[in-house]
Amino acid sequence: MASFDPTQIRALVFDVFGTVVDWRSGVARDVAALAASKGVRVDAPAFADAWREGYRPAMDRARRGEIAWTNIDGLHRSILDELLPRFGLGPVSNEEADVLNRSWHRLDPWPDVLSGLHALRTRFVISTLSNGNVALLVNMAKRAGLPWDCVLSAEMFQKYKPDPEVYSTAAQLLGFAPQQVLMVAAHPSDLAAAQGSGLRTAYVPRPLEYGAGEPSADRVGERVFDIVASDFVELAKQLNT
Amino acid sequence: MASFDPTQIRALVFDVFGTVVDWRSGVARDVAALAASKGVRVDAPAFADAWREGYRPAMDRARRGEIAWTNIDGLHRSILDELLPRFGLGPVSNEEADVLNRSWHRLDPWPDVLSGLHALRTRFVISTLSNGNVALLVNMAKRAGLPWDCVLSAEMFQKYKPDPEVYSTAAQLLGFAPQQVLMVAAHPSDLAAAQGSGLRTAYVPRPLEYGAGEPSADRVGERVFDIVASDFVELAKQLNT
Questions:
Q1: Can you tell me the ipTM of this complex?
Q2: What is the pTM for the complete model shown?
């Protein structure tokens, strides 16, 4: 790997679920609210975890072509339809399920995100690079005030991360060489795939992604990233913004 | 055509060249600056007009598959390489030509645009829907402060307007039915194509697009659009924002 020169960076692309927003708390909040309205008791954080856990195998089926390409709203909905009876949350109308499915559009950023992004935006192009679908990312940004210059989504490429085309096409669309683009993520596997396409990498661990005391299975291991930062404000400082 | 109910609109998608930004003045400004640096005299507005005129046939060759799909930066560059000798502007280095080619990234909005977009953004999702490539649209927005929620470009679809897929895919990506999306353009032909895909339409004439006293060849004719507004501030008022 060539030595890292931060002055070559022109754009930052961000993983979103877990890296920018706290999906677990946000989804659990809306699950708990629906359960309360039904007068049933549900372990809402466990529901959120199960929902998130179902996402990877569903996406992999789409990636391997075993099911037609489906966006995340669609994958989330099919997982939700299995989880509702399993968790005893019902009966739920189709419209109520749709509203709950869109809890993924209503997630809050981690506390450092807005000030970090505003600082980074003064010097770099900042964009999502997420498996979330466009409408989800746009609605999330509008609600939370995320100041993206551009919303790039796997949906535009009909490919999901970690497929290499997602990373290389993102750099190309932004008009930069891969080594001018810094992928920011809390997930080492995402960063490793970005490295494979020639992007630079910033690892921002989010130890609370799976709740207190629940470490992620996605470990750094032997991997080396260009930047490690504790949060987005720290990342902006390391990039001299 | 079903009667128009503005309360059904959820998103506005905007043509950019001519509708949002004044390409003629911006391109002519940079052509004149380069000519001055070379000590040559060039009719800069005529250069800008010729550049813009070359864009449609070049794009149509790409649309018909006669040349490989090429983004607007690429099409602009090949037209520029023909225009430089024709207008006696030279010798020009490859780097100088690249910088001039990016004059299309440095265009200024019409005077009403920023306040109109900020008003519209409070109630609607606002996005580009332009044949301009993503990098061009992102750079333009960052320089001019255009507050897009999303940057949608023909480049993402590898299709150019007025191909119907561009309009229908844009609505789909934003998560809305075509009739919930309002296409805003200064060009009746663009709006007619959007109507063909089921979008709603707002015509915002820009009488100075081709300079004073140079009417566009693209006429309204018998066409009827849902909204006609004199500028984006007026458009926001008509949509009750």
A1: 0.95
A2: 0.96
